[in-house]
Amino acid sequence: MISGRGGSGARGARIRPPRRIARPNAPAEGADFDACWELLREALRDIHNKNCSRLSFEELYRAAYKIVLMKKGDELYNRVTKFEEEWFAENVIPKIEQLVTRSLVNIGEDRSAATSANERRQTGEKFLKGLRDTWDDHNMSMNMTADILMYLDRGFTQADPNRVSIFATTIALFRDHILQSKLDATSDRSVVDILISVILDQIEMEREGDVIDRTLIRSCSRMLSCLFQNQLENESEKLYLVLFEPKFIEASEAYYEAECEHLLRQADASSWLRHTEKRLGEETDRCGTTIELETLPKVHQTIDNYLIKSHLDEFLALDVTGLRWMIDNDKFNDLSILYRLVSRIDENKTALKNIVQRRVMELGHEIEKALKGIDFSMGLAEGEEGGEGEKKPLNPAAQQTAAAIKWVDDVLRLKDKFDAILKECFQEDLVLQAAVSKSFTEFINVFGRCTEYVSLFIDENLKRGIRGKTEAEVDVVLEKAIVLIRYLQDRDLFQTYYQRHLARRLLHNKSESHDVEKQIISRMKQELGQQFTSKFEGMFRDLVTSSELTTGYRDHMNVAGEGEKTIDLNISVLTTNYWPAEVMGRSAQIGAESRVTCTYPREVSRLQASFEQFYLSSRNGRKLTWIGTTGSADVKCVFPAVPGKSGALAKERRYEINVPTFGMVVLLLFNDLEDGGSLSFEEIQAKTSISTTDLMRTLTAIAVAPKSRVLAKEPLTKSIKPGDKFTFNNSFLSKTVRIKAPLINAVSKVEDSTERKTTEDKANQTRAHVVDAAIVRIMKSRKELSHAQLVSEVLNVLVGRFKPDVSLIKKRIEDLITREYLERPDEDGAPSTYRYVA
């Protein structure tokens, strides 16, 4: 019995003991060639007719063996080949011709002339099944033929390296006599052309939504993969790759090009995205189940070129459904698909990156524009009983601060939005992350007050924003603050504002938590370096030192026993270089009055002298300057009964009022006046030597503020002006015993245009020195540099502090040349070269 090799083409044989069946024509041993061939020819016919149950493998093998030994292997080889050719002509080709109808031919020539899709599918499937069955029969027969002619290959074929095996020769006859045969003399289309047309038509029907026989088409594609263009059987010359795949890719290109045009006319980017991803999945499935998997990269490349790349910019730019609409409406699914599709065609995601960058800039500028149209005149009352949620009018300074907080909150919400898009949709792609960060940096720094607003945002959170929050929530606030700082280019200006706001929080006990303050400073140090935070850390060290000094001084006074203490002193000794000039009483404007000068009452002066003696006893070379602008004092006031009044005013009233230090100085003046006596603004200033600005703020706190109006003012206006008169307010009445007068200068507010210009002028002066130092350090190291190289290195060195203008760098270079730190060489050809002068 003969066992075939199956459709895979793997050669193998199994020999069973021959059955002794008498055959009338069986030749005896030693018979001649014709007898052996006749036995083999009959066996081949039985194999094709599937009537091989009585065939003896041993007998047939011996017949082929004898022929080879007769040195007639070449004649056997040729006769087997001729037999197969004749078999095709007589038994196979007529069946194939019956399968080829006019409608089948029209599928490839003219689709419009073809019949309905259902009829096309049925006709095509009938043709494919007939061809597949013919191939399966031939493949099985040639496997069994090769088994009985095994010795022909071993003794004859393998003797010549250029001769192919009998199996390869006979299996290739299917290619030559079936697939490449012309149906008639007038047609130039072969069977394989019709086969490919039918397969492509079936695939296109499936793309249109019809159901096809995938297994049938897979059998036909495997047939083409098993056959080669010639007898050399190179893998790259399989009929599948040479004939079918190019036409499949060409048809796919035409189909997807037309489909993309149709989708573009629909103007729905969301549908385009989902349809394209669906097509990619379909082609993956088709290559795995219908045709060959090796075609997958090429058909995917076709989709990339025709469905994605060709009209990508038009789809992204669509007004209603394009990329801007997806971003604005948080279409995360669409954005995820878009990222995957764009990543297929461009590793830099240029089209996606450009639109995302542009949209970030647009939304950032919209935040600034929207801020100008918001009315901040009404805000939520804070710190008042029953005032939660109640809107109350805000003064201009508070309105500007509210606008600053609103701007930063909106920027952070925009940052959260794009962070979510980057994480959920763009797989945290580094290229897109860098693009988004660049856009945030640009639009934030275009806004002139960004440094001040970021500092105010941090100030607001550290005063009230973190109240009641958990440690994790506080950590989120700190991280947002660092993110904002990271985007700032003028970090020296931010440093100036943060120093002012931190000083107010610390000196007026406005900070919610010193631990949180130190945490954010530590994060700034990690991000921006130790030099950036050195002053902030020095301010905290001053507070620790001051607490120790206060405790030491109190212990010293208790030991000295200098009578009864009438004043309890709490001192903050501040290092001049760590604290902002405004806090230390140094005027920011040239020609302005000194804010340090003040004539203190005798009781306070004695206490100051006592503390100075204690402080300087253990510290040589130090000088203390008393600053009253930022301190406060608790003053016990006794208000006598008012004659003719009833209720609380008819009784003596005692209150403890917390006022600014200068407020204490002013109030003590009224102890020396007779009842009903008054002092004018000029008289108060003459007695106290307080600057005009500070005196106005002080009198506002104790003569205008409704809850601490200890002094009565004439005329009754809400502003303090020279010429106003002040008397002790005997009719003052309060529901609480302890009263806190507002610290007019303790609130962090947005600078007005004058203050802003002053800050920028001071920053520019400082920047000039910083640029000078950077230039000198670079030139000292490099000795000689061209102008372009020097400017580039200066920009790189200072990028962490601020972004200097090139004109400023050029100006500082000229100044250093004038001051003989640098020189221009006299050599010809080096007009823009600088040399360091040792």
UniProtKB/TrEMBL annotation:
Entry keyword annotation includes Ubl conjugation: yes
GO biological process, one term: ubiquitin-dependent protein catabolic process
Database matches in Pfam families: Cullin, Cullin_AB, Cullin_Nedd8
Record field: compositional bias (Gly residues): 1-10
UniProt-recorded Gene Ontology molecular function terms: ubiquitin protein ligase binding
Region (Disordered), start-end ranges: 1-26
Protein name: Cullin
